[in-house]
Amino acid sequence: MSALAKASGALKSVDYEVFGRVQGVCFRMYTEEEARKLGVVGWVKNPSQGTVTGQVQGPEDKVNAMKSWLSKVGSPSSRIDRTNFSNEKEISKLDFSGFSTRY
């Protein structure tokens, strides 16, 4: 990405899936809280396969901070084995107005 795009606060979107002990450990609640602290938007969900999935959108630096949190921190009782990121792209506007838990 060019320096100009970074300076103009380019918006990014990325999908994620977190593997490990991430269900039944308040992972969604902590994800929502961290997203609000960072100022990113999107969603988080517990799918039936035992992972946590979602999407994050916002300024590139904040999305990167959230990616790091999803890869290394998580909720206090979670154990993150790996996090896969996909469909990372620059977007012209945010698709969400906040960060929510989907069921």
Lay out the secondary structure.
Elements: H1 3-7, E1 11-21, H2 27-38, E2 41-45, E3 52-59, H3 60-72, E4 79-91, E5 99-102
Parallel strand pairs: 2-5
Antiparallel strand pairs: 1-3, 1-4, 2-3
Domain Acylphosphatase-like: 13-103
Organism: Columba livia (Rock dove)
Pfam families: Acylphosphatase
Describe the structure.
This protein has 103 residues and is α+β, with helices and mostly antiparallel strands. It has one domain: 2-Layer Sandwich (Alpha-Beta Plaits), CATH 3.30.70.100. Helix content is 29%, strand content 40%. It contains three helices and five strands. The protein has helices at 3-7, 27-38, 60-72, and strands at residues 11-21, 41-45, 52-59, 79-91, 99-102. It has a five-stranded mixed β-sheet, with helices on one face. β2 and β3 (52-59) form a beta hairpin. α2 (27-38) packs antiparallel against α3 (60-72). The protein is globular. Mean pLDDT is 92; it is low at 1-7.
